[in-house]
Amino acid sequence: MEVFVDHYIVLGLPSGEEGIKTSEKEITKAYRSKALKLHPDKSHDNPDAVNDFQRLQSSYEILKDENSRRDFDADLLIRIRQQKVKENRRRKMSEREERSYRTTMARVEEIKIMNMMHEREEIDRVRMMSAMEESKRMRRRYIPDDKTRARLMNNLMR
Questions:
Q1: What is the pLDDT of residues 60-75, one digit of tens each?
Q2: Spatial CB neighbours of 144, under 8 Å, sequence gap ≥ 6
Q3: Global confidence as pTM
């Protein structure tokens, strides 16, 4: 697979649509400036100096030739547009995923609330049943028969 090299970036120029608008003088000026920095005679400590300088020369040769520059610019524009399409797809996908996540979390929250309400209702129902049973027990225990009632009434009247 061939690796794409942005020749404008190799020369230290702006890439993309800005790079396409760059004049030949600006390209030559950028090349000379970079060549002084990357020349193997000036970069003894850099083991890749020869490769870097050759890549710089290759980029300059492509950009200074009108036909090869036109081809490169067309390829660059195609790649830029493809990248924008990919980013838009990614963004749309992330928006969909975000929406899906928010919907799911809202549903989870709704289920939690419903469960809490059901638990609360169940607790209230159990309490009500307990209170009713207690009330029945109390009534059974404290409902006096007629004799006892009469005796209690007499005691209260005294």
A1: 999 999 999 999 899 8
A2: 152
A3: 0.54
